[in-house]
Amino acid sequence: MKGTRTSEVEIDADAAAEARLVAALRERGQRVTSQRLVIGRLLRELDRHVTAEEVLRRASEQLPGVSLPTVYATLDLLAELGEARRVSVGGPVLYDPRVADHAHLRCRVCGRVEDLEIPLDTAHALHAARATGFDAEGAELVVEGRCADCSARDAAPAAAR
Q: pTM score, two decimals?
């Protein structure tokens, strides 16, 4: 019975997210298309930082003939609507289903990007930027270095010597 309750909650969360997307599209006068709904659903289901190419591979299973420009345009629209976050941390642009302010870790060796779970308040940085006359739209915190896997891989040959 417990598993059923969990899936009901997940279905409710999915339905609520899709309803938010539909409302946001209509509010902006945008068409509600199956492509937009499927890509939004896929981003939520993948639940990690993804490239447009990754979304295209998954979307092609449900939307034969969907193109990379359509995926990019849809992901960028989702970001504009506040339903996704566009993450530029060096390398390819990533899209994140988590839209609340949060920090990222980026491995300089393998390029992996992960969320860093810390309290993050960008208000002070945005306020300071605006005080200089800068038209600030957002702020990101990215911690760069080597991920645990790359650090361990690099340490293994050194330990063997």
A: 0.79
